Amino acid sequence: MLSGFGPVSAFWLLAVLAVGSALMVVVARNLLHAVLWLILHFVAVAGLFLLMTAEFLAMAQVLVYVGAVGVLVLFAVMLTPSPWSENTEGRLGGVAVLLGGCLAAVLIFVAARTPWAQVTAGGFASTAQAIGRALIGRWALPFEIASVLLVVAMIGSIVLARGED
Amino acid sequence: MIPLDQVLVFSGILFALGVYGVLTRRNAIAILMSVELMLTAVNTNFIAFGVFHRPSLAVGLVFAVFVITVAAAEVGLALAIILRIYRQRTTANVDEVDILKW
Hints:
The complex is a heterodimer.
Chain A: H1 5-27, H2 31-51, H3 55-79, H4 93-113, H5 127-136, H6 140-162
Helix pairs in contact in A: 1-2, 2-3
Chain B: H1 4-24, H2 28-52, H3 59-89
């Protein structure tokens, strides 16, 4: 973990940016605007990963989320017209505010009050090497299962989106 | 030094925002985006714990890699299903998609 004034202020800047854009994703009426806020949110979170010395995951976040997921969701919004009229809020508004507020309060309380056993000199020299060793060593079987899952998801989405003919 | 609890507070707020979005939105794509927010919050937690607790094992980072993989697969499948539903019912509103309801 980086220390000093620069990284700490960068953390606050990115955290405010990520939370603000997430809020806009949730409240934006126009679905297209919501997707663009979501992409901004992913970029801010990638910056946070970089600050936590997880640079490989920051790159994966940019590639997979900003590149693939953002474009895919944008495609879906464009292919299902009338994104303006259908994005009204449901009847659960009050309940959702209550539930979300309670959940946030509980999570913040737990995070702030628990004495986490924290490594003071944490951080990685190179996460790509550590992840690579872990993936071909201890986590080889889950890694292979994840690749099978990706193939199944790819074939399934092709079959689903293609239609009857 | 960024304290661990601040990162956890951040991801808690993100997760609560995602829950709020899932509950209030009616468009299936908007619900999917809120689910993505929640997954990102979980990922941030995994990475924070992976960095702050026993960084030598890299377990948190590997779990974050798997979360990203599953999230990518989930988005692809969910958007295909939404497009299919839209083609049949000309709506992406989850309140009107009640084919499985008896």
